Amino acid sequence: MLSIRLSRVGTKKAPVYRIVVMPKHNDPWAKTTEILGHYNPRKNPSELVINADRTKYWIGVGAQATNTVWNLLIDEKIVEGEKRGVTHLSKKRTGKLEEKAVVQKEKTEAAAEKAKAAEETAKAEAEAEKEAAKAAKEAAKAEAEAAKAAPAPEATAEEASTESVVEEAPATPEAPVEEAPAE
Fold it and tell me: Given a cut of 90, is residue 167 above it in pLDDT?
């Protein structure tokens, strides 16, 4: 099976890649079937030179492009389709991410339960306050009706007279102040 892939040809710390067609299991620096172009990611914007006709021919014959090359071909509109994921995660990292997701899910569920419980207690308190207000209103209404129904006892004349009489203490006569004779 043939693959269309990148083969590094740049210098140390300055990569430049060739886009090549070669058997899939060959070493990337082995003899290539055909060089389709080159790719320089270090330029701004990155430089991609590729022979579109030959690339379409090799894809038509059954050559499989690697994910990176496939995404470059889509960017250049040589092929149509969806971009492919290039990032590879190890099993260890995938496991850690899954554990983290589970812990996060548990935290959100706990927070949701706590919020729901708080909401229920707030509802219960509001209903209790409503009931207390209703009971107080009914008690006041019953008290008012009881006050209307029972005749008020009339105060006796003696009670009325003692309540209105205010006793005053007798005033003490003050002794006249004598003035000293003027000399």
Answer: no
